[in-house]
């Protein structure tokens, strides 16, 4: 399932990226993200008065010479980040390669996080989370993702509630889903809780983005198995596209209102273009 993601050129490009966060998120270990605390990175943050016991190497001697003030330089700390990956495995994800694309996106973001010393959790509907840390956790994460099946069990809203119940600290939550559930908005509202950064990877396929040609068709609801026979006319197609645009706009407005990152992913788009183009435009990576 992840054969394209495993290519050396793709992994090499991902290794040069870092997950983008819209706010400072404090972690527990030394990592590669800006922290609300001060630390020992190379990014200058502020001055403060010298206190007994301060590292004398941080004294700003230029200020001392000009103003006769004993100040020390403060630098941004770099913290780790807990990245929670939620992959939708409902029945609708079984069509048009959507589950494969969702797994590839989760694997790519998990790889970036683990190579930056962040911690990663993989959350699936109806299952306990799997946890990974460090670069050595990459093969295990990829193995979990390659075994995914669109079982149709669980719901996004219930999964979001379970993630929230286990959440420790803010971190980043990434949802990879087609959002083809009536309560998709309930799930989105729960996920940014407790200061978490939220990113929504809205994975859609040919069936949603480009409906069938005109004529007599049987439409099957993959979630319920219900079949509906109908004749597609130019008016039907036009109405469908209008409702699709309205729905996509509603999802984007909902995510923006939550301060979340949002990207519509066409499962037919080459993976490298999504990873190195779409994710950058959505400010998911930098």
Provide the number of structural domains: 2
CATH topology of the largest domain: Rossmann fold
Structural shape: elongated
Strand order of the largest sheet: 5-4-3-6-7-10
| H/E element sequence | HEHEEHEEHHEHEHEEHEH
Number of strands: 10
Going by CATH, what is the homologous superfamily of the largest domain?
Answer: von Willebrand factor, type A domain
The span between the termini is 26 Å
Q: Helix content range of the residues, please?
A: 25-40%
From the 3D coordinates, which CATH architecture of the largest domain would you assign?
3-Layer(aba) Sandwich
- Report on the biggest sheet: 6 strands, mixed
Report the CATH C-level class of the largest domain: Alpha Beta
> How much of the polypeptide forms β-strand, as a percent range?
25-35%
Helical segment count:
9
Mean pLDDT: 84
pLDDT below 50 for ≥5 consecutive residues: which ranges?
A: 25-42
As a whole number of angstroms, the C-alpha radius of gyration is: 23 Å
Classify the secondary structure makeup into a structural class: alpha/beta
Note down, in words, how this protein is organized.
The chain is α/β, with parallel strands linked by helices. The protein has two domains: 8-25 and 81-281, 3-Layer(aba) Sandwich (Rossmann fold); 30-79, no CATH class. The protein has helices at 8-15, 61-67, 98-115, 138-146, 156-166, 184-190, 206-209, 234-257, 271-281, and strands at residues 30-49, 71-79, 82-87, 119-123, 130-133, 172-177, 197-204, 215-220, 227-232, 261-266. The strands form three sheets. It has a six-stranded mixed beta sheet with strand order 5-4-3-6-7-10, sandwiched between helices. The longest helix is centred in the C-terminal third of the chain and has 24 residues, at 234-257. The radius of gyration is 23 Å and the shape is elongated. Mean pLDDT is 84; it is low at 25-42.
């Amino acid at each position: 399932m992840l054969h394209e993601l495993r290519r050396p050129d793709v992994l090499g490009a991902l290794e040069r990226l870092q997950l983008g966060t819209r706010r400072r998120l404090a972690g527990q270990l030394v990592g590669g993200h800006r922290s609300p605390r001060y630390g020992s990175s190379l990014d200058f943050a502020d001055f403060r008065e010298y206190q007994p016991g301060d590292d004398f190497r941080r004294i700003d001697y230029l200020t001392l010479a000009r103003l006769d003030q004993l100040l020390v330089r403060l630098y941004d700390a770099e913290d780790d980040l807990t990245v929670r990956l939620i992959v939708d495995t409902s029945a609708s994800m079984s069509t048009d390669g959507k589950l494969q694309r969702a797994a590839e996106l989760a694997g790519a973001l998990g790889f970036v996080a683990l190579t930056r010393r962040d911690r990663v959790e993989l959350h699936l509907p109806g299952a306990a989370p799997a946890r990974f840390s460090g670069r050595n956790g990459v093969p295990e994460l990829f193995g979990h993702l390659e075994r995914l099946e669109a079982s149709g069990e669980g719901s996004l809203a219930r999964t979001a509630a379970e993630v929230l119940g286990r959440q420790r600290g803010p971190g980043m939550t990434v949802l990879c889903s087609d959002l083809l559930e009536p309560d998709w908005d309930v799930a989105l509202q729960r996920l940014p809780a407790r200061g978490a950064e939220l990113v929504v990877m809205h994975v859609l396929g040919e069936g949603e983005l480009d409906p069938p040609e005109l004529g007599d068709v049987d439409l099957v609801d993959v979630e319920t198995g219900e079949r509906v026979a109908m004749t597609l006319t130019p008016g039907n197609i036009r109405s469908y596209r209008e409702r699709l645009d309205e729905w996509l706009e509603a999802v984007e407005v909902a995510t923006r209102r939550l301060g979340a990152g949002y990207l519509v992913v066409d499962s037919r788009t080459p993976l490298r273009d999504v990873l190195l183009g779409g994710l950058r435009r959505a400010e998911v990576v930098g």
